[in-house]
Amino acid sequence: MKQNLLIKSFLLAVAAFSLAGAARAADAMSSASVPPSGTMGLLGQTYAGLSYSYLDLNHSPDHTDDYRFDYNQPLNAGLDGVLSYDFMQTGAVKQQAVAGALRAFSSAYTWGKPYVEAGAGYTWERGGGGKDNSVLWEIAVGTEFQLAPAFTLTPFVKYQGTPDLAQRDVWNYGVKANYWVDSQWALTAGLDRDNHQAMRYLVGTNFRF
User: Fold this and answer.
1) pLDDT tens digits, residue range 128-165?
2) Cβ–Cβ < 8 Å for 199, 59
3) What global pTM score does this model have?
4) Helix H segments across the chain?
């Protein structure tokens, strides 16, 4: 019952977030859908995002639901600050994580924006007859390719370490897509696989300030 309430609340939040963007899109139908520069990705933008991920766990009857909030803030030219919160549930086990990161990127190339990211945070688990906590740290590299004025595709590799949990080291290899419906509201989707052969399927929305 609590899980169903959580899912409904999250979906309502995503719907409200999307409707706000849709209203702005309707108001801007007669104007350009992207900024005057002609192109727009996620790097170097101030935005907040909500997403849902379904993790198909290898050799397990369970799966993981991951509800995530992100906030990205440019700090300087070529440098973003990122804050995130995750709520995850696998069967009876619930896990939460908060993290902050710095993401440095280059806009010097016409073919894309390569980036490197490093961050740290804290995670805690409850359920299944026990509880556990751990610091976490992560590094990532990727490239944001501008395939169309409002559409970007970003392949990435990410490592996350949680030294005090049973699953200490996780490598993710995947790709994310982002499409700006207008200059302030975007839809996003992603697919990745980790070194434990779990597949992640992600959908979400971003809202630019």
Assistant:
1) 778 999 999 999 999 999 999 999 999 999 999 999 99
2) no
3) 0.81
4) 2-27
Helix (H) or strand (E) holding 43: none
Residue linked to tokens 């440095």:
104
Q: Which residue's entry shows tokens 């992640």?
A: 200
Question: Alpha-carbon distance 121 to 137, whole Å?
Answer: 6
Look-up: residue for tokens 């609340």?
9
Nearest to 194 by CA among 10, 52, 42, 53: 53
Give the integer Cα–Cα distance in Å for 144 and 155.
7
3-class secondary-structure state, position 13: helix
Contact 150, 117 (CB under 8 A): no
Alpha carbon distance 62, 56 (integer Å) = 8
